[in-house]
Specification:
The protein is mostly helical. The protein has a single domain, classed as Rhopdopsin 7-helix transmembrane proteins, CATH 1.20.1070. Helix content is 84%, strand content 0%. It has eight helices and no strands. Helix 1 packs antiparallel against helix 2, helix 3 packs antiparallel against helix 4 and helix 6 packs antiparallel against helix 7. The longest helix is centred in the last third of the chain and has 29 residues.
Length: 213
Amino acid sequence: MDNFLSTIVVIALTINCILYFKSFFNNEKAFKIFSFYLAMCLFTEFMLRVLIYYKYQNLIMTHFYFIMQFLLLSYFYHELLNNKLKKRLIRYYAVFMIVVLIFRFVLFPEFLMQFDLFEIFFTCFPIIIYAILYFYQMLESKKKFYLVNIGLTIYLFGSTIIFLTGNIINIYSPKFARSCWRFNSLLCIFYHVMVFIEWKKNYSKIRANESNL
């Protein structure tokens, strides 16, 4: 069951990555940033499987994933949000967080080989805040990336909670832990379905129309 859900996630991610890069050059900066984010996710999935296959420690890739997700999605929402103060806060927080993480890994290199709950919380929670701020902006402006924003908010909220409580759950209830990770995979599948619908509804037609010119 776990392998089946994991395979579905990779297939959905691969399809979305291909579709978004098909429309890459015909769309705005935010679309391009999000496309790079999907490519980063696909690269991470590939590297995790390569490391598992060759029996290498793969936790190092989780740091790459959380940090790159934080940077790319921060940049994504920086482009979508109109308020100059919010944009400035996103920039300042991104710089601050990267400096903190660099010093943290330099001073405590052992964190590179384990789940870093500090890193997970302080890179994921701000993205949820940015997504909520963008929901408020969409009440008075054009609803670009509306479905992506819904999917991302639900997925990140649920996934962050699972990651933060994962160690405790694994110790006290391994069976429940497996159910939580399966639920995380289902959340990820839901997210990629929303990403696909977003492309199909708002970006595939742009591509088709330009091809007919």
